[in-house]
Structure prediction request, 1199 residues.
Amino acid sequence: MDPEPFEVGHAVREAINILSSSRNGVQISEALGTIKCYLGGTENQAPLKEREEFTRVHFSAFLRGLVSNLSPDWIELLTSDQQKELWDSFFLEGPADQAFLVLLDSIISMGPSFRLMKVISILEQFLQTGRMSALMWEVCHQQAQAGLPTFQETLLNKVVCLPDHLCNKLQGNNLPIFFPQNYFPLLATEIIQVLQRISDSLRGGLDCSISFMSQVLGKVCVHGRQEEILNVLVPRLMDLTKVDCIWQRMCWRLVECVPDRWMEAVVCGFVQKAPGADVLSRLLGNLVVKNKKAQFVVTQKLLLLQYSYVTAVLQNLLGYLALDSLRRSLLIKVLKELLETWGSSSAVKHCPVEQQLYVSKAILICLSHLKEPEIESNRQELLTSMMGGMKCRLDSNLPRVRRLGMIVAESISSRITTDGPSLKFQYEDDDETRELKSLQQTAPLQLHVTDLPNAGRNNSPSATPKAVSKPSGNPHPATPAVPEEGSDLELDSDDDLVPYDMSEDKELKKMKAPVYIRDCIEVLTGSEDMDKWEATMKVLESLIRRNSATTREVSMELAKVLLHLEEKTYIEGFVELRKRALVAVTIIDPVPVVQYLTSQFYSLNYSLYQRMDILDVLALAAQELSQPQASGKNKPCSTQSPCIQTVSGSDSSQNWRRIVDERIKSKTHRLAKGQSLVEPACGPNKFSSLAGHFFFPLIQNFDRPLVTFDLLGDDHLVLGRLAHTLAILMYFAIHTVAAATMGKSLLEFVWTLRFHTDSYVRQGLLSAVSSVLLSIPSERLLEDMTDEFLETQSWLEDVAEKDPDGDCRRLAWQNLLLMENLLKKTQKCPYLVVGGNWKQREIALVLRVAESLASVL
Amino acid sequence: MALPPPDPQFVLRGTSAEVHTLHFYCGGQEPDYPILFSGSSNGLIHVWNLKTRRVDTILDGHGGKSVYWVEAIYGRDRLLSQGRNQKICLWDLAEGRNTVTDSVFTENVGFCKCSLLKVAQGHWLMAMPGKDLDEVQVLELPSKTSVCTLKPEADAKPGMPMSLKLWQPDFGSCPFLLAGYEDGSVILWNLSGGKILSRLACHQEPVMSLDFDSEKTKGVSGSSEEVLTVWSLDEQQNLKVQKTHKLVNAGIADVAIRQDKKILATAGWDHRIRIFGWKKLKPLAILDYHTATVHCVSFSDHSRPSERLLAAGSKDHRISIWSIYNQTSGALHCPLETRKPD
Prediction:
């Protein structure tokens, strides 16, 4: 048996004894000095074996002893120099891993006290003096000689969770260095230092394990601190790996060694933080090929399951896949999967538009990376999925989805058709389409941009397109300026000639418009003179409104003519002119015309467009009729009510929502103040006696398919329009006798269609519910329609939580809020008897609404 | 507030047909009165006395086919007229005569008006559309000998000539021809060599009319589209576009620069006459009187600037006579309100 271990142990025990019992400063400092010899670094150090013995076995225990003896009067026995040299140095110079653990353990276990303050200040110094890198280096070093896994596990936990522990302990008195936003960048620089040492030792031919670093990185990332750590780490690694292949290998290894459960967080972090695809490729190497988990994250999760990332991330990711021949097969695989998602009709129906946009972007970027031979070998497949996807996208009722489909299809077809014309759609360009189109070209350019030194900073998606568009945009305004200046140089001018008034210089009207309505009918039905026809169209509305008596004589004939009128020659705003004329006829002679129009809506041989026109006309007429106006003053509807412009599919629902929003706002306001809304103008509501004529024929036949018209089948666009129109009619039927009956049947209508797959239809239904809630007196609603009300409410709750369409969810929440307001109002009326479970339901509802608001904010 | 545009000074009615061409003759001595020749679509040429504002003489020499160019030579005694019966007639009007003394048969059936240039005392050059569709022929008058035939090269394909303007930089030098073609281009021809000096594609549609200011070497052209183009000729004999003006309504039937090079008048298909400042093409006035397309505009060459007139002939059978921007000094012309009281 070796006597030495005993000797060291004896010395340590003795020192601890002295420390705990003695009250003599000199004695204490001597004891500390003795032990210090075992640490080394001083002139009279102990033999190597003893030192190793001390650090391996006794160091932690001794440190604990030191901490446990700490008290204000005890520490005063030492001078401040001695404190620093003898007390602090054990923690700051001894083996860092043990010192760190002891410090953290004691912090965790101690209550607020002098001792805690002292230990924390030591820990602060520990971090400041860069002991963290020593700690990690020690672990890496040990690992090469197989260290203790549990010890490492504890250490890892403590290193990563240090900010949490200290925050919990110190609460408001936490020191800045322990804040996560300071600690993790510090940790990152320490990691870089350790990596530096590892690379040195590798160059020196020594083996070194990097896996502890990977674990630290992985754990930090999975704790949600990717931002802080990678913001420092990625730029440094980017610089270091630029020229040095050892660093590159180390970096790859660093990521590869991250345990699988943390891989996702690390890869996501890198993908987001890397300023360009080439950097990402340098940092990650062929990780996706080697690591299944990383492959899943990159090819599936980031592309198909999540959609919150900005375009630059997509460009990084797909560019990374495209940069290496090993990874290119993945790129093609990814494209196929993306196209499969893009082409599936159920995805079109059930994915939020934002995700569809994300997938479209990914497809466009993939396409831009593909090379000719790759496209060649996959042409047939691409074509098939393009055709399928295009079909179900063009079927959609949402213009944005349609447009997305068009752009993607256009770009696929332009890539796969080498000769002959490619697909070309007509749509209006907006920011979104321009961004998408720019993705087809910018991808290769992106790679060069990132070589610039400051490229790391502008990783926002808009940065690159802006930079590209600016220089090209500038010359254009400049060029016309040059000839302007040139002409100014001519000194003599025409200034002595004073121009006459030229305001009369207007577009020439070629034809005199007819003055009588009967003439108009003649022109519209028979005339081949296009100029006359055009002039007639332009005056028709005002003519109808001026001559109401004459119009009544021919109203049916006129309605028929107008409904069947086709655009024989191009007139600006023809559709609008025709619609306004029809609205005017409807208003002058409502009953027969509305009867005619509603019956025509469900009859054979009309185009979808005509049917939708009927709906628009009815909605606009209802609006105008319901508006109070002084008798005799017949202003044209167009100037009076800009709110309902049911011209195009997209706008109508938008405007609708706005109306409902405004309405809700005014409602809420009114309830809060307990005042009634003051109408600006008074007059009889002409719509009240007519509401039924508008409403019931429309809602009657929707479930009876005709040969050419099947609302519940393919014609869901018209169904959506119908739902919106019914909502509008219901809304204008406020305060009318028929409102309650209308509301009841409307709720039934909503109930039958509530699971419709088309989001436009659902939006219409939700608008309809809003109208019902707004237009029907709350007593009627709660007394006569309790069942419908409850059913609708449960459906709304369902929609508000689960619907894939964001607009639907929002509308549902609005409806729920409205319902809640209604319930509140009824509680104020004591004569109303309501069920006992109301209160609880309502509380739950309020909580939900608050939650949703919080999540929105 | 700018002044409202003026009304016509007077209107000449009685042609009972569309008026296609107008030509003033005001150059006579004091007892003579200014004359306006008008050619109309019923083949008649009316000679209007602008003092009495009545028709002096009616000339019928084109067999009822419309007359679309008239111009007086030898003072008011001889008149050239071009009609749709493919004849260019020379009339003797001296001492009350009205007979056709000579005529040239044109083989062209287009609408292109001739252009006349006096090269020496008693000698004129006349450019007229030639036998082939894209050909322009230049004759010497009164001998009627052909000076040259200007035919673009086979691959140029400018279409038919639509309007012609002969000019020479200064008296006695070699004359040039500017021709506007069916494809919207204007071509500068050198008569001595019969070569194209420059070609400028300044319109999308046929050039309906052009006029040229040989002092400033810049010209203006109107076409059936809604753009009026001013182009200039540089020292290297290259035509280039200087300025374009967008009109409210399409179609210009005729353009005329006043002899003093101050203003420019256009005859619009939109029934309106437009006046522009010639230097910068500044819009000055819109004269709205006619109820149908205006076919032609013409400025009088009256020796006294204040008596200079503008005449416009229209499809509505009327000739409107305007007195506009004919004060010599700018101050006199200023509307009264804008002058400071002193």
